[in-house]
Amino acid sequence: MNRRYRKTIIAGNWKMNKTPSEAKALIEEMKPLLSKTKWCEMVLCVPFTDIQAAVKAAKGSKIAIGAENMHFEKSGAFTGEISADMLKELGVKYVIVGHSERRQYFNETDENCNKKVKAAIENGLRPILCVGESLAEREQDVTMEVIRKQVKIALQGVAAEDIKKVVIAYEPIWAIGTGKTATSEQAGEVCAKIRDCLRELYGARAARAITIQYGGSMNAKNAAELLAQPDVDGGLIGGASLKSADFAAIVEAANQ
């Protein structure tokens, strides 16, 4: 982490878990554990059906509420989809874009991610753009070719003055929900190279200010080691964000 230049952000991704009443109960459980946070911004990205309950439960705390996905169009014949301005009116501050599960199960492309990133920014939301390689791509030694392509396409047309609103989450696909984690050195190396790519696109000053999270099975035990890497500025947390004590421990590691 480097707090001198950029924010540390710990974001939970609840995926398809928790009913509204369960969401309320979990956030109420988390609030006292997270009340003394100094340096770290905290976000809970929850299912659409939980957003209203989560915003209400988090009111008065330092927890921001995010969404797990959105459509890039403002309105129209897109049955089952939710737009950025719908999220904003509910009190959402962040939205995850391009999570590997969206890419895998719902055919989300880099081009779609680009449209979503721009729609989020235009509507005052902060996109958390997910990028990452599969196990086969890592073994073939094309990790950075894959990630550079994802970053470049997803940020195409995003103005220099807007890039600071984007959060990048490096999530190696082989480490999501598998219990496997990139070593701190692996995570740090890729996050540093992502920053190099951003430097090429937007210049050194802009790249230095962008928060880059690690998002592959970060947990209470390995958070401190991962966050000690200079280019790892937070985490996108899956399973551990559904356990108040574990999420609080990760936030505590980010506050050291």
Give a written overview of the molecule.
The protein is of the alpha/beta class and 256 residues long. The protein contains 11 helices and 8 strands. It has helices at 20-34, 51-58, 84-90, 100-106, 110-122, 135-139, 143-154, 184-202, 204-208, 223-227, 244-254, and strands at 8-13, 40-46, 63-67, 94-97, 126-131, 167-170, 212-214, 234-237. Strands 7-6-5-4-3-2-1-8 form an 8-stranded parallel sheet. Helix 1 (20-34) runs parallel beside helix 2 (51-58), helix 1 (20-34) crosses helix 11 (244-254) and helix 7 (143-154) packs across helix 8. The protein is globular, with a radius of gyration of 17 Å. It catalyses: D-glyceraldehyde 3-phosphate = dihydroxyacetone phosphate. Pathway: Carbohydrate degradation; glycolysis; D-glyceraldehyde 3-phosphate from glycerone phosphate: step 1/1; Carbohydrate biosynthesis; gluconeogenesis. It comes from Butyricicoccus pullicaecorum 1.2. Pfam families: TIM.
